[in-house]
């Protein structure tokens, strides 16, 4: 399986769980970011920072990590002179 095919398959499998976890956390922090009343300035500051950080981490995790994986894999395979990688073959014997 090529690195690009592996990334596409992993994205297909992991996109929904990553989004569900991230959105659940962000919706949980939303009341903290939108709070009003006495002492809400501190809660708003913390909530906004946490919400922004989680959003940024989600975007990085979904888009940039797979992109970096493919790019690093491509660069290292070029620098190694495209040497063939030994693959193990199973004979079916235990």
User: Unreliable stretches, pLDDT < 50, 5 or more residues?
Assistant: none
Count of all domains: 1
Q: How many strand elements?
A: 0
Helix content: over 70%
Q: What is the residue-averaged pLDDT?
A: 85
Shape: elongated
Strand content: under 5%
Secondary-structure element pattern, one letter each: HH
What's the gyration radius in Å?
21 Å
User: Count the helices. How many?
Assistant: 2
Main sheet: strands, sense, barrel: none
Through-space gap between termini: 25 Å
Output the structural class: mainly alpha
Give your account of this protein's structure.
With 94 residues, the chain is mostly helical. It has one domain (3-79). 76% of the residues lie in helices and 0% in strands. The longest helix has 40 residues, at 40-79. The chain is elongated, with a radius of gyration of 21 Å. The relative contact order is 0.11. The model has no long low-confidence stretch (mean pLDDT 85). One of its GO terms (molecular function) is xenobiotic transmembrane transporter activity.
């Amino acid at each position: 399986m090529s690195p690009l095919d592996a990334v596409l398959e992993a994205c297909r499998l992991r996109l929904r769980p990553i989004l569900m976890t991230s959105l659940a956390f962000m919706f949980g922090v939303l009341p903290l970011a939108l709070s009003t009343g006495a002492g809400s300035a501190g809660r708003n500051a913390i909530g906004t920072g946490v919400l922004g950080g989680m959003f940024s981490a989600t975007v990085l995790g979904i888009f940039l990590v797979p992109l970096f994986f493919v790019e690093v894999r491509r660069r290292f395979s070029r620098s190694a002179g495209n040497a063939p990688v030994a693959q193990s073959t199973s004979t079916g014997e235990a």
